[in-house]
Amino acid sequence: MEWDLGNFINLLQAQAGNPFIIMGLIIIATFILEDPATVGAALVAVEGLIDPYLALIALYIGIFVGDLGLYGLGRLSSKYWRVRDFLKRKGMVATSNWLDGWMVQAIIGARFAPGMRLPTYTACGLFRLSFTKFALTTGIAVFFWTSALFAVSYLAGEFVVMQLGEWRWAIGIGLVVATIFLPRLLKKLTKNMAFVTKQKAMTNN
Q1: What is the residue-wise DSSP string for 16-80?
Q2: CB neighbours of 87 closer than 8 A, spacing ≥ 6?
Q3: How far apart (Å, rounded) are the C-alpha atoms in residues 124 and 76?
Q4: Nearest CA to 64 among 140, 10, 127, 118?
């Protein structure tokens, strides 16, 4: 059987009568890549396959649970004696104290910085920082960031549907791909620019 974009759309449309299945798929998608999942959920909502509010609820649940899972992974790792001994080193104690003092800023910053959520949230659990503070901060960050990204994607999706018709899914997939690769590309370009600037400074000296 040939599998193409049309078959994928038909699959989603077949589940339109059962929003809980689509919500489950959205939740699973957030565990893989949360920002692309948010964009994808918005586009699915634009197509009318799920109510936008239900799509948002699924995103909140999936992303928040994923964040708590990263914290739990770090907390679980801290129970092993080798890890405990490693955390007692002077440098690690200093890092723990710093992260404890800047925990809110670190959590919010990691939400927007590509690739920083895993090490930052896991470290919060590893250093056994306040779970209540972590959960409250990440919950607020998830609500605002996910809501904003979903709203922008939903409005853009409505425009795409009205203006581009049958091309809407191709453009939608392009948006998802851009969400995956653009932050990484920008991060790489920033590093390259910093390296070039450093080399120029060394040459001038």
Answers
A1: TT-HHHHHHHHHHHHHH-HHHHHHHHHHHHHTTSS-HHHHHHHHHHHHHHHHHHHHHHHHHHTTS
A2: 78, 93, 96, 126, 127
A3: 11
A4: 140
Closest to 122 measured CA to CA, from 70, 79, 63, 84? 70
Q: 142, 170, 181: which is closest to 43 by C-alpha?
A: 170
Amino acid identity at 155: L
Instruction: List the domain range (segments joined by +) for residue 45.
Output: 5-204
The residue type found at 23 is M
Q: Which residue has the tokens 């990204």?
A: 149
pTM: 0.70
List pLDDT tens digits, range 140-192.
999 999 999 899 888 877 665 554 444 444 555 555 555 555 555 555 655 55
